[in-house]
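Entry type: protein chain
Record version: 2
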Amino acid sequence: MISTLKQRHINTDTLMIEQFIKIGLISISDRASSGVYADKGIPSLQEWLEKTVITPIKFETRLIADEQDEIEETLIDLVDYQSCHLIFTTGGTGPALRDVTPEATLKIADKVMPGFGEQMRQISLNFVPTAILSRQVAVIRKQCLIVNLPGQPKAIAQTLEGLKSEAGEVKVHGIFAAIPYCLDLLDTDDSPMPYLETNTSIVQAFRPKSAIKPS
């Protein structure tokens, strides 16, 4: 039997009045896209979002190679033609010659949001010193926030969720806490943004009191 929460995520095509958020998930990997091994980025991201986001979600997923032109074209398609509100990429952010995800992301950007990359590296440094080799960026194109995430599923969850004590208290905020309000700030009268709500046991979204809407 499918749970009510799960149904809220998979039945978005039938939502006529209820608001949903459209999220693009892009996994960037030469070997996964060619079938050498199974992609783990999109499944782990989708699983985390389905348990964390209360607002109904419609996903657009893409598995592509480490080719800058293809990454740029995919991002433009998801923003300009598929009307995604939020996009996460995973993979291709290291110093290797084939790692060009940040370059592609910056190329199609209207604004750069450097705080996201800074915080992701700060979180990852709690686990590995090689976090300084990561080059993740976040940008805005039109009314869409695009965030480069790490390639490993465990690191993806850590950077989104942050660090907690054994008692469950937040020690270092993950980046997802700031995303709902970021999307609020992209709202316009002509093109309203969805009001993104979260499962507070996983991530407590932060908004100024003036921006909080009643449940």
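Comment: Confidence is low (pLDDT under 50) at residues 1-18.
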